[in-house]
Write a structure and sequence with these properties.
Layout: H1 2-19, H2 25-37, H3 44-64, H4 68-87, H5 91-105
Helix pairs in contact: 1-4, 1-5, 2-3, 2-5, 3-4
Length: 135
């Protein structure tokens, strides 16, 4: 059971931190605040403030090329989620539903094949490829 809770907390923290840098963050933020506040251990304002600070830290870190901050935030939120899951077994189902909802909203990525052929001799210079990734 502990391994399952740890995996769920890890998935939750990873998804949460990934969503912090998206356009849909405010809606995800509100759901996460409600998730924590429903457990009664912390106030909605406190969780909301913590999430806002975490998002600000993440955005600043991304602008500076700091990848460690994202890992630190994931670790912090993993611990917080694991505490909630341990204290309230019913929270696991709600967290799974929240993750399914958030992941279901992510736009599907299209996979495209690219085949490059350079022929007609030996090239000792730069080869430039251009294209449009939008449909």
């Amino acid at each position: 059971m502990e391994a399952e809770l740890m995996a769920l907390a890890t998935a939750g923290a990873t998804t949460l931190v990934q969503q912090m840098a998206t356009d849909g963050w405010n809606r995800v933020r509100d759901r996460v605040v409600a998730f924590f506040a429903a457990r009664g251990s912390v106030s909605a304002e406190s969780v909301g403030s913590d999430l806002d600070t975490a998002r600000s830290d993440l955005v600043t870190a991304q602008q500076e090329g700091d990848e460690e901050t994202a890992a630190d935030l994931q670790a912090e939120w993993r611990v917080r989620l694991r505490r909630v899951l341990r204290a309230d077994p019913e929270a696991a189902a709600e967290l799974r539903a929240l993750l399914a909802e958030v992941q279901g909203e992510a736009p599907a990525q299209q996979v495209r094949d690219v085949h490059n052929t350079i022929s007609g001799g030996t090239y000792h210079g730069t080869v430039i490829q251009a294209g449009n990734i939008n449909n």
